[in-house]
Amino acid sequence: MSDLVEIDSLLSSNTPLNNTEDGEEEAMTASEVLQKLEEAWLNEKFAPDLLPVKSNLVECMLAQIDAMEANIATAKKGDFRISVHRMEIDRIRYIISSYLRIRLAKIEKFTTHVLQEEEKHRDTDTPLLSDAELEFAKGYNSSVMSHLTNTALRHMPANVASLNSKETAVVPLVDSYVFLKVNETTENVLIEEETVDAGEEIMDLLQGDQHIMRYRPVASLVESGAVSLI
Amino acid sequence: MAALLVSSGMTNNYFSLDDILASQETIPCTFNVKVATMGYLDQSTSDVDINMGTKLDLPFWLAKYLHKGSRGIVSVDTPKTYKEGYRHIFTADPNVVDLYRLGPYFYLFGEKLLSLQLPDTDDIANVLLKTFQGRFRNIMDGSQNALHSDLASQMEKLDVQERQLFAAGQQGLHEFQKWESRESEKLSTSAMVSNHRKRKRIGYIANAT
Amino acid sequence: MDASEIEFLAEKEHVRVIPNFSQDKIYLISGDLGPFSAGLPVSIPLWLAVNLKQRQKCRILPPDWMDIDGLKDKKQEEADSRFFTDMPSPFYMEITQLLLQCATDDIPGADEVRTLIKDIWDLRLAKLRSSIDVFIKSGASHAKLNHLTLLEMNTVRQFLTKALDHMHRLKLCVSGDPAVQQ
Amino acid sequence: MLAEKALDLVRELHRSLGGTLSPYNEDKIRQVLEEMQTLYDQNKDGAQFAAEGQTDLISAIQVRHAGIQRNKRCLLAYLYTRLEQIRKMRWEFGSVLPPDVKYNMCEQEVQWFNQYNRLLANYMRSVGESGGLDLTQDMKPPKTLYVLVRCIADHGEFETQDGNTVLFKKNSQHYLLRSECEHLIRQGVLEHIIQ
């Protein structure tokens, strides 16, 4: 019982967690991490393409859940708080599972494209995939390719017996429409490129406003957090 | 399982079955050269070759391939449905037209046609957009209200993409109603499992008789 | 998105309850709750409030806006306005649904509240449909949707985005964009 | 017409989408591959004569080449779309498929299913620090910790997380942790009852 209180206070939202990477101090409380994770989940859900992975947030929340579960295990049976903590754990686990599932579905759908993009991201601060996702993507890609090869391609005439991945890669439709909410006022956003019969269209996105528009013009704003997909 | 379905729409990708079916729609072609030994493509004659000047309806994928380049093997003409006569009908009253019968991939095939640079390309492009805008309200109202009336007849005149749109409208409404009646709270058997069950039951009955 | 997921988001909203038990602060990952003192109001997330109510451990205090006269005015305002009015809660529908399901006895005039909220919802949805029609006919490329709630958006999400995606492609065709014409 | 059989494959699969997987049409696949080979052989012969100046053969070569490409696209789309369906089955049926569903798959597809199963299991095991996360669970937002369920069919004994054993007898009702019976509900063994 005393254990519960002790670890509980460790996990109180007032205690900043050390969520640092490459030496940069960035202290966030558990509830802030959860909030960020929830935003990442919704953005991922609505964005037509795969967004850079938020491994830190996922790992941090999983660790919190583990600690809380260890905690519950030591608590006295029938403690009112156990069910409350359990319900919260269920809610957080749902967000994490759903987030990772949506990512897997995109990785499977756009495998070739995702692997190409990952090349560009790999050595930056914002890798597209986690290590586990990368391994999964490679495995998935090769399983599909060898299936197509074994069942069809290798029985085809030599001049057509391979796949041109440029031609066949399934790519996300970044021109799809999305709903969004503006978090930070951003001026002069290019909404429509200039076309033959219409000029370009520029507008200001004001904090608090909600819009429906194509994803492409705001893709970078989603990544920076200036807008959220809803 | 909706969470696992990345918004798909009609992607024009290499593996898309819809795109393959849309590119099977035919286009009136005239052969500019003789094509030896391929006479069997023309079912109206028993000639061994296709002779110069032969008129033949070819599927889009073949017409496009033979048309490209400056010395095109075939010349292409606008399919009847996209010619001026029909374009007038679409603009005058888009809602009475049975696009499925004329299509069924009215828009998708229409988009493909544009790449052939027919003389009336601009007019075709315009009529595609105007037709959709003109039919939109009916599709929306139908999909939001057609709960008790006959769905099949509502959807009959819609082209494939319009049907998908209609279905999306219906689904949004149904999901909301399921939520309102608290049905969405219930954990349920996955769709494939219950489909499989039903099918099996039908199978047993069929075997028994 | 599933309506049940929007409900899930709505369940984070706080409501005030009067517990019939006492309990020290609970340190949740999402923030501290309590302390709970029997008979004293305390603000907790809806998911917990519903759970406590089901276990008969609290009485729920309806949100300020869940009041018959206020809702009548709101309904009139919505009917009079061409635009969507600002709702007192971005999750008005979900909160009403959940509270009326588990805590009818705590909501004065529960049936009338239900009817009024549903009327407001219907007014707003009708407005949404006609504005969608105007939007598509105008051929505009984007629209501002202020004051529209998540659940309202969601009932037309797939339909509207599909329709706009389709129209976008057709517009590219008209402007002769070669990207479409493969 | 050229590539007619390949189109049949596509039509056949397109009709069955949304339902259960249609039987793997090995026969037709073989015919498509044969047509491709025939067109290719004819083109090889044709190329020789064309080189000798017979230009009407060059256009024939182009027609046949378009046919080869079309056959290829239809066949690959058929196989690829089936994989997408099979992948979906892993999420809906679980890691073991009913025999009659498996019956409609070819040997390589069964192998692919097993491979996908392994890939997914490896991935799920690697999530987090403590033994992974089962992503095929928690498919809906949680509402309650415990759920009331009814057995749709006899399913033998079941050990709950707290060490008790319950007997899943047809029509018997149980009050279980949601997390331990969600799979069985999705697979149609148990039915969730809302009070």
From TrEMBL, chain A:
Predominant location category: nucleus
UniProt KW keywords: Chromosome, DNA replication, Nucleus
InterPro entries given in the database record: GINS_A, GINS_bundle-like_dom_sf, GINS_Sld5, SLD5_C, Sld5_GINS_A
Domain GINS subunit intervals: 80-150
Listed CDD domains: GINS_A_Sld5, GINS_B_Sld5
Any GO BP annotation: double-strand break repair via break-induced replication
GO cellular component, one term: GINS complex
DNA replication complex GINS protein SLD5 C-terminal domain: residues covered: 172-230
Domain of life: Eukaryota
Location relative to the cell: Chromosome; Nucleus
Family: Belongs to the GINS4/SLD5 family.
Function: The GINS complex plays an essential role in the initiation of DNA replication.
Entry protein name: DNA replication complex GINS protein SLD5
Native species: Candidula unifasciata
From TrEMBL, chain B:
Residue ranges of the TM segments: none
Cellular compartments annotated: Nucleus
Cellular component per GO, a single term: GINS complex
Pfam families: PSF3_N, Sld5
Record domain DNA replication complex GINS protein PSF3 N-terminal: where: 15-66
Nucleus recorded as keyword: yes
InterPro entries cross-referenced by the UniProt entry: GINS_A (IPR021151), GINS_bundle-like_dom_sf (IPR036224), GINS_Psf3 (IPR010492), GINS_Psf3_sf (IPR038437), PSF3_N (IPR055221)
UniProt keywords, alphabetically: DNA replication, Nucleus
Top-level lineage group: Eukaryota
One GO biological process term: mitotic DNA replication initiation
Ranges for domain GINS subunit: 83-179
SUPFAM superfamilies: GINS helical bundle-like, PriA/YqbF domain
Quaternary structure and partners: Component of the GINS complex.
Entry similarity comment: Belongs to the GINS3/PSF3 family.
Functional note: The GINS complex plays an essential role in the initiation of DNA replication.
Name by which UniProt lists this protein: DNA replication complex GINS protein PSF3
Species in which this protein is naturally found: Candidula unifasciata
From TrEMBL, chain C:
Self-association and partners: Component of the GINS complex.
GO terms of biological process kind: DNA replication; double-strand break repair via break-induced replication
Pfam families the record matches: PSF2_N, Sld5
Domain DNA replication complex GINS protein PSF2 N-terminal: 3-61
Keywords assigned: DNA replication, Nucleus
Domain spans labelled GINS subunit: 65-170
Keyword Nucleus on entry: yes
Location relative to the cell: Nucleus
Name of protein: DNA replication complex GINS protein PSF2
A single GO cellular-component term on record: CMG complex
Stretches that traverse the bilayer: none
Record's signal peptide: none
Keyword Nucleus: yes
InterPro entries: GINS_A (IPR021151), GINS_bundle-like_dom_sf (IPR036224), GINS_Psf2 (IPR007257), PSF2_N (IPR056784)
Species the sequence originates in: Candidula unifasciata
Family recorded in the similarity comment: Belongs to the GINS2/PSF2 family.
UniProtKB/TrEMBL annotation, chain D:
Superkingdom of this protein's organism: Eukaryota
Keyword Secreted carried by entry: no
DNA replication complex GINS protein PSF1 C-terminal domain sequence ranges: 143-194
Chief place where the protein resides: nucleus
Gene3D superfamilies, per the entry: 1.20.58.1030
Record's keyword annotation contains Nucleus: yes
One GO CC term, this protein: GINS complex
Subcellular localization, as worded in the UniProt entry: Chromosome; Nucleus
GINS subunit domain ranges (all copies): 56-127
One of the GO BP terms on file: DNA strand elongation involved in mitotic DNA replication
Keywords carried by this UniProt record: Chromosome, DNA replication, Nucleus
Function: Required for correct functioning of the GINS complex, a complex that plays an essential role in the initiation of DNA replication, and progression of DNA replication forks. GINS complex is a core component of CDC45-MCM-GINS (CMG) helicase, the molecular machine that unwinds template DNA during replication, and around which the replisome is built.
Family as reported in the entry's similarity comment: Belongs to the GINS1/PSF1 family.
Summary of subunit composition and partner proteins: Component of the GINS complex.
Protein name: DNA replication complex GINS protein PSF1
Organism: Candidula unifasciata
